[in-house]
Write a structure and sequence with these properties.
By secondary structure, the chain is mainly beta. The protein has no helices and 11 strands.
Length: about 120
């Protein structure tokens, strides 16, 4: 099993940046594909980004491509999401998740963090 804890959320003005981190414990993170998802108020949870086990491959939702960057440091057992040029519509609770398949489908992820709030003001 792996336990995931997100950090780095907060309040930022539109156009600003935030860096989210996800720390893992229990099992080495290199065993898992890692993803970031988000859930805005009144909306379904949606895919944001995924990185494969080595960190060599990444994939993004079209809404964040070019603004967000997912990365991982297997030696430190962490995954990060650098978010630039933030927009009010990026406001959501952001979750990191660990899974087996390189996928944008949240059903493929068996372990989830508790989430961190990101609020972007206009």
């Amino acid at each position: 099993q792996v336990q995931l804890v997100e950090s780095g959320g907060g309040l930022v003005q539109a156009g600003g940046s935030l860096r989210l981190s996800c720390a893992a414990s229990g099992r080495t993170l290199s065993s898992y594909v890692m993803g970031w998802f988000r859930q805005a108020p009144g909306k379904e949870r949606e895919f944001v980004a995924v990185v494969n086990r080595s960190g060599a491959s990444t994939y993004y939702a079209s809404s964040v491509k070019g603004r967000f960057t997912i990365s991982r440091d297997n030696a430190k057992n962490t995954v990060s999401l650098q978010m630039n040029s933030l927009k009010p519509e990026d406001t959501a609770v952001y979750y990191c998740a660990a899974g087996i398949q390189y996928s944008a489908n949240q059903r493929d992820y068996g372990y989830w963090g508790q989430g961190t709030q990101v609020t972007v003001s206009s």
